[in-house]
Write a structure and sequence with these properties.
The chain is mostly helical. It has one domain. It contains two helices and two strands, in the order E-E-H-H.
Length: about 140
């Protein structure tokens, strides 16, 4: 980098040999003012966007809380339904086991020679009632 050597003036002052540059200060002032106004406008928009984002975040948090509550309710309901289903399954198993034992007994007795057929529920029930009545009569004697 080269430096310019000052030229000495009368009275001991120094003056650099540079071309004279004139600046239109009013134009620069207007430009700065315009830039400041634009910047203020941009900051206001940014502030509005930030406030909107905060509001939306609050709404999102509220919605998340509502969804979490719904999820908890659904989990509780699911657990209750599973318990109820387990009760129904136990009842079905009990009924199915009793019916299987009754059909096995019916086949063992083979009242009508239909070993490979399942009995009609009415016929099976009547047969079981008859068997029960006979067993009670024997017990009384």
């Amino acid at each position: 980098m080269t430096t310019r050597k000052p030229v000495e003036k009368e009275g001991g002052e120094h003056k650099f040999n540079m071309p004279k540059v004139t600046i239109d200060w009013k134009w620069r002032h207007d430009k700065r003012e315009e830039d400041c106004k634009r910047l203020v406008k941009q900051l206001e928009i940014a502030k509005q966007n930030a406030l909107w984002a905060i509001e939306r975040l609050g709404e999102a948090e509220q919605r998340e809380l509502e969804l979490q509550n719904q999820l908890d309710d659904l989990k509780r309901e699911n657990e209750e339904l599973r318990k109820e289903n387990a009760e129904w399954e136990a009842t079905f198993e009990l009924f199915n086991n009793a019916q299987t034992r009754a059909v096995a007994e019916w086949r063992k007795q083979d009242p009508e020679g239909r070993r490979l057929k399942l009995p009609d529920m009415k016929d099976l029930t009547l047969w079981l009632i008859t068997e029960l009545a006979e067993a009670r009569a024997k017990m009384k004697d």
